[in-house]
């Protein structure tokens, strides 16, 4: 089956930059997104899109594509919409006036190592990010390190390497990469990587380190985290939220991090977008409000309000499942748990009634007094 590009929706709240391309197929209803492999070189499949279309822009493209073809990218620069493969897009945007962050995205998509290093250095020099400078710089550099390592690996794969082998290594690598290690990732992971690569370990590491611009602070987040959170926990949080298949679980995880570790939650909000409508709406609300939530009590009270807002704005037939998943992730916080129970008790809907006993049981279990060790009596 062949698919035709008809438009796209932005990955974040801004109007410019890369958009998620949306496709139609003559023989199937609905809009589709392309799913690429770990190497990002070919399309593996197309799947139905169920996200928010309120910011859909027109991006009709004459060519039809299918599984096995190179993926298409859609970039909006002011009022101009540009569509093409990674190589085509790089050529079309080479002389365009772009924001620093967008220039870096384009360079990382298909530029040379020197182009990527230059774009990163310009963004750092520009200082146009929103976090406090030391933490913002460290976060950006660690993200650059991950991007460079993965792109260098993909560029130097042996012909026989499969997408399945790459996918199995991707998560492990992103969870364990550390700029403080001489070889960036642990030796046991290199033992799995090296049979797939045409370059030696030393050459790969050299390429990666050369693509990172000089900076007065090394890209190790633990050195700049006032809360003492280890550097790997920031990237681990992104991996965790992306692995959760249901949007209700992703929302609950993000809100629990907001209560317990607001720095982690802020990092997620700065680096993560979600295609599901409710989860994306929660992200947008949090980004606009988080600076006012100074204390833990304020955050818990705000999440209690957010529970009521989500219940009202969620799909009516899914409200019981929403409250159940929120109870699983947030039931241990009394203020939030009470807000969930209030909605359970107020609602007369059958789909909420179905979950009523389970929700109350989950919350009671999380708030039950801990048993005293028999040996301590």
Structural summary, described in words:
With about 375 residues, this protein is an alpha+beta fold. The radius of gyration is 23 Å and the shape is globular. The longest helix has 23 residues, at about 135-155. It has 15 helices and eight strands. The model is unreliable at about 130-135, about 215-225 and about 370-375 (pLDDT under 50). The protein starts with a strand and ends in a 10-residue tail after the last helix. Helix 8 packs across helix 10 and helix 9 packs across helix 10 (about 260-270).
Task: Provide a count of the helices.
Answer: 15
Give the uncertain stretches in residue-range form: 128-134, 215-226, 372-377
Oligomer: single chain
Q: Can you give the helix content as a percent range?
A: 40-55%
Main attributes of the structure:
single chain; 377 residues; alpha+beta; eight-stranded antiparallel beta sheet; 8 strands; 52% helix; globular; disordered C terminus
Write a brief structural summary.
The chain has 377 residues and is an alpha+beta fold. Helix content is 52%, strand content 12%. The longest helix is centred in the middle third of the chain and has 23 residues, at 133-155.
Annotate the secondary structure layout.
Layout: E1 3-10, E2 17-25, E3 28-36, E4 43-48, E5 57-58, E6 64-65, E7 73-77, E8 80-84, H1 86-92, H2 100-110, H3 113-126, H4 133-155, H5 163-176, H6 187-193, H7 201-210, H8 231-243, H9 247-260, H10 262-271, H11 277-289, H12 296-313, H13 319-330, H14 334-346, H15 350-367
Antiparallel strand pairs: 1-2, 1-5, 1-6, 2-3, 2-7, 3-4, 7-8
Helix pairs in contact: 1-2, 2-3, 4-7, 5-8, 8-10, 9-10, 9-12, 9-13, 12-14, 13-14, 13-15, 14-15
């Amino acid at each position: 089956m062949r698919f035709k590009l008809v438009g796209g929706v932005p990955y974040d709240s801004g109007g410019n930059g890369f958009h998620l391309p949306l496709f139609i197929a003559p023989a199937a209803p609905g809009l589709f997104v392309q799913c690429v492999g770990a190497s990002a070189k070919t399309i593996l499949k197309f799947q139905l899109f169920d996200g928010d279309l309120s910011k859909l822009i027109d991006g009709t493209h004459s060519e039809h594509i299918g599984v096995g073809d190179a993926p298409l990218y859609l970039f909006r620069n002011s009022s101009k919409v540009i569509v093409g493969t990674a190589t085509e897009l790089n050529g079309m945007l080479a002389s365009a006036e772009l924001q620093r962050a967008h220039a870096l995205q384009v360079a990382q998509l298909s530029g040379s190592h020197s182009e990527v290093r230059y774009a990163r250095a310009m963004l750092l020099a520009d200082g146009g990010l929103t976090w406090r400078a030391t933490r913002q710089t460290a976060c950006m550099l660690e993200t650059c390190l991950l991007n460079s390592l993965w792109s260098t690996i993909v560029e130097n794969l042996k012909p026989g390497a499969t997408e399945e082998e790459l996918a199995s290594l991707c998560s492990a690598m992103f969870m364990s990469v550390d700029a403080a290690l001489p070889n960036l990732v642990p030796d046991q992971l290199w033992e799995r990587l090296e049979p797939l690569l045409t370059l030696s370990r030393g050459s790969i590491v050299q390429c990666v380190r050369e693509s990172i611009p000089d900076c007065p602070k090394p890209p190790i987040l633990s050195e700049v985290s006032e809360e003492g959170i280890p550097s790997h926990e920031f990237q681990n949080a992104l991996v965790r939220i992306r692995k959760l298949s249901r949007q209700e679980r992703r929302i609950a995880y993000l809100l629990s991090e907001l209560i317990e570790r607001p720095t982690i939650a802020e990092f997620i909000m700065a680096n993560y977008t979600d295609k599901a409508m409710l989860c994306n709406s929660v992200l947008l609300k949090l980004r606009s409000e988080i600076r006012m939530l100074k204390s833990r009590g304020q955050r818990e009270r705000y999440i209690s309000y957010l529970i009521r807002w989500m219940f009202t704005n969620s799909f009516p037939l899914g409200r019981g499942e929403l409250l159940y998943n929120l109870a699983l992730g947030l039931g241990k916080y009394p203020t939030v748990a009470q807000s969930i129970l209030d909605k359970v008790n107020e609602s007369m809907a059958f789909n909420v009634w179905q979950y009523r006993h389970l929700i109350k049981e989950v919350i009671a279990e999380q708030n039950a007094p801990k048993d005293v060790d028999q040996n301590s009596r």
